[in-house]
Please model this.
Amino acid sequence: MNFLEKQCTITSHRLDDQTIRRYLSDVEGWVLRGTSLTRTFTFPTYLDGVAFVAETGRLAVAEQHHPTITITYTGVAVETTTHDAGGLTENDFILAAKINALYSKGEGSGF
Model:
C-alpha cells in the first residue's frame, strides 16, 4: 500500500493482526513492539538528530498524529500508536512511511 499518498484521519479503527503484518512490510525499518510501531534512526551528530526531530514534529502536526520521540547522542527513537483505538491504525503506518521519506530525504544532505 502506498501510505505516502494518504493523510491521517481523525477517526481510524484498530487494525487486526493480519493487516498489521501485511502493512509492516510497507514501512522499512519499523518493528512491532506491543501495540506500537518503533524505529531508531541514526545520525552523525546530535544536532542532526535534533533537526530531524523538528522536521518530524512539523509532519506530526500536519498529520494530526503525534509519535513519542526519544533523542540520544546519535539516535532518534520514534514510537507511534493510536491511543484512542487501543493499538495500531492505518494512521500509524501513514506516519511511519512519511517519517521514513523524511529521513531518506535528509540522508547525505543533513537536516
Remarks:
- The helical segments are 17-24, 46-63, 90-106.
